[in-house]
Design brief:
12 strands; ATP-binding; two-stranded antiparallel ribbon
């Protein structure tokens, strides 16, 4: 019988801590009073071989960092980055502390990080804390993205405390235990490049290749191969974001994962009504990180990474050639997403025209993104679909073209609809759903967090018991806003 661990005995010293001291600062968590378990991700815990929450009476103490495993190695890493296009010379883990690694039941190592565990040397006058509101948003969305099949950091558990924290108003503190193979970002590479520490840059690149991209060793230049891999993963990730209407909100280079994971959930949002220029972060006055800007911002960020890797690359031309691969890779990945969403067996170049016309119609009517795509794949949905558009005649024309395109391929309609359901989620973490869970949690009622979590694990399945989560957003949802403090 498999032995189930507690957090106290699962943690081992982290691989990141084996890097030279210039990469991090040893940083113990700052204790939080009266920790209380808000939610425990039983599914992820089981994958890590962890005992049930009820079998570990000290779980909340470990989740907030009041207690540490014997082999814990708490540290905060240093990095820099371009924030809203402006270079900032030193950032780092300002409120996240890496406590160690954990090996899952498959033998894969993951880093365990406590976000909101107190000040670090990189807090930049911040308090190092996270509030319950933002912690619940990250906890739910990282697991929602995992359910959607989109690469992401994960969330193991969340614990709250009555300690008061000032943001826009006074709120209570919380800590999220985050899990990922590594939390290394583009900004880690930028830091050592701009510091002129090129041997340490090489050390970091070698560490990344050895642990996560070992096939790069077979290339003529392993570091150019590393850049190629990151470009490809990032292109695929952004295509997946666009396909589900996800907006990150703050795509700074320090929020870009070297593994192509969705990283750092702050002012994110899933679109309700489709707006090509949707801005989910009310701190983003210029719309730099709007929905339709995400692909080009990803490329801009990759340029920053390539710049940082230049001392290790054959020459600048090699980096430029690699970066030129992003756009066709993104377009191919997005076309594949759209092919599946539309129920086509094969993507044709002319399908871009069909998609462009659809996006224009949806944008003009602010058609609900998630509801439209799910309904498109359902039998007898044409009347329901018409009601989602202001110009119904124009949509009728588009639908006729679409139906003609489907008919050209032939095939079984029932099989096509089933396949479309697996490409178009019924459930996403809409802002108002997260807000309802947050308001309940702030009253000490955590059941809604768990209910949402259970539903979002299976976003493509019909779950009649969660029909309320699939409904169109209420009018009050339009007044919700999120910012960099969210």
């Amino acid at each position: 019988m498999l032995r189930m661990h507690t957090l106290a005995d699962l943690i081992t010293p982290t691989r990141f801590g084996q890097l030279p001291a210039a990469f991090y600062s040893p940083t113990p968590p700052t204790p939080l009073p009266g920790p209380q378990l808000v939610n425990w991700n039983a599914e992820l815990a089981q994958a890590l071989g962890l005992a049930a929450a009820g079998d570990d009476p000290a779980l909340a103490e470990y989740l907030v960092g009041n207690r540490l495993a014997t082999d814990a190695q708490p540290l905060a890493s240093v990095y820099c980055g371009h924030q809203f296009g402006v270079y900032v010379s030193q950032l780092g883990d300002g409120r996240a502390i890496l406590i160690g690694d954990a090996c899952d039941v498959q033998g894969t190592l993951h880093e365990i990080q406590l976000k909101g565990a107190g000040q670090t040397p990189y807090s930049r006058r911040g308090d190092g804390r996270a509030v319950l509101r933002s912690s619940i948003r990250e906890y739910l969305c990282s697991e929602a993205m995992h359910g959607l099949g989109i690469p992401t950091t994960r969330a193991l558990g969340i614990a709250g405390s009555p300690e008061r924290i000032w943001r826009e108003t006074v709120e209570t503190a919380a800590v999220v235990a985050r899990v990922a193979p590594t939390f290394v970002r583009f900004g880690h590479f930028e830091y050592f490049f701009y510091q002129g520490e090129h041997e340490l840059l090489r050390t970091l690149a070698d560490w990344t290749i050895n642990h996560f991209y070992p096939d790069c060793h077979g290339a003529d230049n392993a570091y150019l191969a590393l850049l190629d891999h990151v470009i490809a993963r990032t292109a695929t990730l952004i295509a997946q974001w666009q396909a589900v209407g996800f907006c990150h909100g703050v795509m700074n280079t320090d929020n870009m994962s070297i593994l192509g994971l969705t990283l750092d959930y702050g002012p994110f949002g899933f679109m309700d009504g489709f707006d090509a220029g949707h801005i989910c972060n009310h701190s983003d006055d210029s719309g730099r990180y709007a929905y339709n800007q995400q692909p080009q911002i990803a490329l801009w960020n990759l340029h920053c990474l390539a710049q940082a890797l230049l001392p290790l690359l054959p020459d600048r031309d090699a980096a430029i050639t690699a970066l030129h691969r992003f756009q066709p890779l993104f377009e191919a990945a997005f076309a594949e997403q759209l092919r599946r969403k539309l129920g086509f067996a094969v993507w044709q170049e002319s399908d871009w025209t069909l998609v462009t016309e659809l996006f224009e119609l949806m944008h003009a009517s602010r058609t609900d993104w998630t509801h439209f795509w799910r309904t498109l794949g359902e039998a007898g949905a044409s009347t329901t679909l018409r009601d989602l558009f202001v110009d119904r005649a124009a949509f009728d024309g588009w639908l006729a073209q679409y139906q003609q395109r489907v008919a050209q391929e032939g095939g079984d309609d029932a099989q096509r609809r089933t396949a479309m359901q697996q490409a178009n989620p019924r459930y996403v973490l809409r802002n108002h759903l997260a807000e309802i869970a947050i308001r309940a949690a702030e009253r000490g009622e955590f059941g809604e967090v768990d209910r949402l979590l259970v539903c979002l694990r299976h976003p493509y399945d019909e779950q009649p018991e969660y029909a309320d989560y699939a409904a169109l957003p209420p009018d009050w949802a339009t007044s919700l806003s999120v910012s960099c403090s969210s």
